[in-house]
Each structure stands twice: as structure tokens, then as C-alpha cells.
Write a structure and sequence with these properties.
The chain is an alpha/beta fold and 238 residues long. It has one domain: Vaccinia Virus protein VP39 (Rossmann fold, 3-Layer(aba) Sandwich), CATH 3.40.50. It is built from eight helices and eight strands; from the N terminus they run ααβαβαββαβααβαββ. It has helices at residues 18-31, 35-49, 65-73, 87-99, 133-146, 164-180, 185-195, 204-214, and strands spanning 55-59, 79-84, 105-108, 119-125, 147-160, 202-203, 218-225, 228-234. Strand 1, helix 3 (65-73) and strand 2 form a beta-alpha-beta unit. The protein is globular and about 50 Å long.
Length: 238
């Protein structure tokens, strides 16, 4: 379904409810540059890492795109678990996985309360940016603690530039990109207002420092387009 949510005036701040879930796949593909290509890059990387008996956990799994694609392409027995606190997203992901015959478990849980320990891979694509800064570091620490030695943390985020002038230029370039995807100026501004104080981005260096403080031995940028970046952090092995 095509994303037309912000053609009408705002009634509330952004939240992942039934309306958003219904158009989410179209929204994210038109709102995140190179979304599909980046997802394919993440899947391809993880397929080189996964071995029989491993566990992959996706935090903020939304409609399940990444895990379903990974499960369909993975040639070994791996446990795939998606965790999201939005019931509408979880229900849609479950329907999609059944339709595509992908063996993935989707759970409606609060990631800060749910025990996802024993993971070999944890993915959080565009998830940390919605977690309040006061507890974001604790979330990354929980992810680190949940990973087995040698495990991977893959994290995609909207990011800020260190330089304020450059940040302003990139935002303007991004808005032009969204116009090219068919969004009107009104829709862009309404969504920006809806996300204010809901989506709070960090710089890449702030994200890297947070992961290093949690204990990750290596943190690298896998992909970046303007103010969107994917990072991979590795927990030191034996």
C-alpha cells in the first residue's frame, strides 16, 4: 500500500500503529536511500557468518523484511527471532512469513524487558534512534551482554554530521531525494514534525563511542548515504 499518511494534517506524534504498519514497506523504501541495496548487503554479509545452530535476533523487526529474506536465503539451520513492541507490525510480519514460508519467529515484546541472550547476531535497523538517549547506552550494553563471544551487532541509523554546515546541506539534499520519491513538501514537513523528539539521531562517532563503551572490540561503518549509516560491531572472541 502506498504511503499517504502525511497528506492529512497531524493528529499525534509518530507511532508504529496500524496505519503505519499498513504502509511501512513503501514508507521505508521511499524514505531511506538505497534501503533495498543496504538490506541485501547486510543479508549477504550475515550469510557468510552464519553456521548451523546459530541464533539471529532482530530488534525492532517491523514487518520482518530482513529476517524473512535472510531465512529464505540461508542454507543452514539457524534460529531467526524478530522482536517488536508494535502489535500491528508483529502481526503483519507473521502473516508475511507464513505466506512466504519463511521459518521466523516474531514476538511482540519490549526489548529492554525480554531476554534475548545467547544470540550470535543482533540486528537493530533504525531502532536505537527511537530509544530515549537516557537509556540508549543501556540498550547497547544489553545487546553486547546478550551476544556470544565473537558475535556481531549490525545497526542502521539516521545520523547527524559532525559539521553543522554539512548537516544542513545533507538534510536539504535528503529532502530533495524525498521529493524525487513522490513526497510533497507538505508531507515532508508534517512527517518531520511528527518525528520531532521521537526520532533522536546521534553522529556516527557518538554511536561508535557508545558501542565501544559497551565493550565491542571493533566498530566499522558498512554503508553510508548522507545521513543514513549502517555499522557493524564485533564482540571479541576467544
Amino acid at each position: 500500500m502506498k504511503d499517504r499518511l502525511f497528506e492529512k494534517p497531524l493528529e499525534k506524534q509518530f507511532e508504529f500503529d496500524e496505519e503505519v504498519a499498513a504502509v511501512f514497506d513503501d514508507m521505508i523504501e521511499r524514505s531511506v536511500p538505497f534501503y533495498r541495496q543496504n538490506l541485501d548487503l547486510i543479508v549477504t554479509l550475515l550469510l557468510r557468518f552464519l553456521k548451523p545452530g546459530m541464533r539471529v535476533v532482530d530488534l525492532g523487526s517491523s514487518t520482518g523484511l530482513l529476517l524473512i529474506e535472510l531465512a529464505r536465503r540461508c542454507g543452514v539451520e539457524v534460529e531467526f527471532i524478530g522482536i517488536d513492541n508494535a502489535p500491528a507490525m508483529v502481526e503483519l510480519a507473521r502473516k508475511k512469513s507464513r505466506a512466504l514460508e519463511a521459518d521466523v519467529t516474531f514476538l511482540c515484546e519490549d526489548l529492554m524487558r525480554y531476554d534475548f541472550g545467547g544470540a550470535d547476531v543482533v540486528v537493530a535497523n533504525y531502532t536505537l534512534q527511537f530509544i530515549r538517549p537516557a537509556v540508549r547506552g543501556k540498550t547497547v550494553q544489553k545487546i553486547y551482554d546478550a551476544l556470544k563471544e565473537g558475535g556481531l551487532f549490525v545497526c542502521s541509523e539516521k545520523v547527524l554530521m559532525e559539521d553543522k554546515w554539512l548537516n544542513k546541506q545533507i538534510i536539504d539534499i535528503y529532502y530533495d531525494y524525498k521529493k524525487g520519491q513522490g513526497y510533497s513538501e507538505t508531507e515532508i514537513m508534517r512527517k518531520r514534525e511528527a518525528l520531532e523528539n521521537v526520532l533522536i539521531p546521534y553522529t556516527i562517532e557518538e554511536n561508535r563511542s557508545m558501542m565501544k563503551e559497551a565493550g565491542f572490540s571493533a566498530v566499522d561503518t558498512l554503508f553510508q548515504w548522507g545521513n543514513f549509516a549502517t555499522m557493524v560491531a564485533r564482540k571479541r572472541g576467544k
